[in-house]
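Hey, I was hoping to borrow your eyes for a little while. No rush at all, and the record is pasted right below:
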Amino acid sequence: MKVTIVSLTEGEGRGAEVVLEQFLRGWDNDEIELFVIAPENSKISRISHDLRINSRAIAMRDSIFSYFREIRKCIYDIPDCDLIHGWTARTFELAYYVARKQKAKYTCTLHDHPKAEFHRKRRHFLMKYFAQKMDALICVSNAVKKECSELGYKVPMTAIANGLIDTGVSECLDGIRVGFLGMYTPWKGFAIVKRLIHETSGENIEWLLYGNVCKEIEKDAVQLQKTFPSKVKLRGYQKREIIFNEINILLHASTAFDPFPTTVIEAAMKGIPAIASSIGGTPEIIVQNETGYLFDQNNPHKGLEFLRVLLHNPDLRKVMGKAARNRYEKEYTVDKMVSNYTALWRSVISGHNLST
């Protein structure tokens, strides 16, 4: 069997591309041959080449119509496949086009809320329209699947959790270092983080804030660092292996629907307890009072209470971190993700009817 994965994200990408990289690195199946279509300047194209996965790089353009022209040019370079899989919402129509040309089965993964604000209304329409033509839609969480159902998606859907390659538990650190990985956009919850930093100014705690700071919060972020120079560090963009060896508590404070945050899985893999807002798919990762804490984003004071519990209970941090690690090993390894995708693709290719 042959499966083509379509990615349109240029450059390094973020959550969905992190997961796709993990998927490709963790791929170990002799029965299904992978082929990857990705922009020539993308991390996914580079990774595919490095892993010696057959691929076709398409030229960078400024519109989906240009991508269609590129695909038309290289359609004969794409091997005949049994199934075409679009990796993100932006690939839905392009993957459908390739599947139609190939007379292949057609599936996609939805990593976003079906009406995510960062997609335009036209994209919302295209997502739903092309979803109805799919043989199956993979949602990264049951929360995303539920939202699609409520919006009238009439397509066989299944939830497959993202998984990560195991890089081991982080080193035991002295002191308290709380990490926040959402400086690149306001909806990741910087306003909540700012409030908690002020509320804990008298505590022996260090705040490490990661990501290239977006313009909307830049002024407040710089002022926060000036106000608490010994407690707040703007760390900018850092590789994951650095981040999760610098922190021992993760604060994930999204104020908008977060489909299935990779950051929370990474913390669990590293044996780091997390405190997170409960909107979206995060409650499917964190077990309340066992692997971390969940709070309503509209009640950040509860997040502050949970943070203080962990600050003053080092043994509890260790117990929760170990429980989080155990949950990762059971639910969120790359092997399990690959196995679930493989099983679904086999079912679709063999013509089994999937329930909606």
